[in-house]
Amino acid sequence: MAKNKIWYFENFNLFEGFSEQQLMKMARMAMMKGVKKNEFIYIPNELSNKIFLLKEGTIKVGNYTDDGREILKIVLRPGEIFGEMSLTGEGKREDFAQAVEDVVYCVFDLHNIEQMFQMNPKLSLKITKIIGWRLKRVENKLADLVFKDARTRIVDFLKSQAEQYGKKVGYETLIWNKLTHKDIASLTATSRQTVTTVLNELRTQNLIYFDRKRILIRDMDKLV
């Protein structure tokens, strides 16, 4: 198990520059866990004292409004860190992390992360940059609500997914999609009906093709 963890950490950009001895020490610190589709890894008001590394699958992170509506902040895929707000002094979770599909992840206690910072001080800077980037995404999302209409927000979401996770197939870009229309609506601050309408319009215009598992963008330059 330790060797499997080391292989995972070696392929995790966050730990670039760690020695094999340091990776072995990290492997002993980490606990590997898994949850099934739709299960929660953590929920609001839980104690915020752990950091998570996603090994397999897809998760979504968000929170709930006072009337119980789900607001998604980000969707994460293998190789990404989550629960990082523990490092900012967050006493209890404000967000939830939920599996979009079956997932496997590593768990570190907060004091283990502090030990890792001592092993390699550059890790602290990398995580700080991740926190800053994600906060910037939230700010941009709020700005989009003011300056962009619903269709533009959905198109921008498709482009962002293509840039981050897409695979080029000639002029086309393939995205393996795990999200429901409801998830996309929550991420773009629209409604499920609006997402369905816009995606169908884009398909009618032959700008995209989609089914339950994938989205194919015909030509990124023409998707506007």
Describe the structure in brief.
The chain is an alpha+beta fold. It has 2 domains: 2-146, Jelly Rolls (Sandwich); 149-222, Arc Repressor Mutant, subunit A (Orthogonal Bundle), CATH 1.10.10.
Structure commentary:
The protein is α+β, with helices and mostly antiparallel strands and 224 residues long. It is built from 7 helices and 12 strands. Strands 1-8-3-6 form a 4-stranded antiparallel β-sheet. Strands 2-7-4-5 form a 4-stranded antiparallel β-sheet. The model has no long low-confidence stretch (mean pLDDT 89).
Which key features would you list for this structure?
4-stranded antiparallel β-sheet, alpha+beta, Jelly Rolls, 12 strands, Arc Repressor Mutant, subunit A, 2 domains
SSE topology sketch:
Elements: H1 2-10, H2 20-29, E1 31-35, E2 40-42, E3 50-56, E4 59-64, E5 70-76, E6 81-82, E7 96-99, E8 103-109, H3 110-119, H4 122-147, H5 150-165, E9 167-169, E10 172-176, H6 181-188, H7 192-204, E11 208-210, E12 214-217
Antiparallel strand pairs: 1-8, 2-7, 3-6, 3-8, 4-5, 4-7, 9-10, 10-12, 11-12
Helix pairs in contact: 1-2, 5-6, 6-7
Terminal CA distance: 47 Å
Overall tally of domains: 2
Helix count, per DSSP? Answer: 7
Residues in helices, as a percent range? 40-55%
Mean pLDDT score: 89
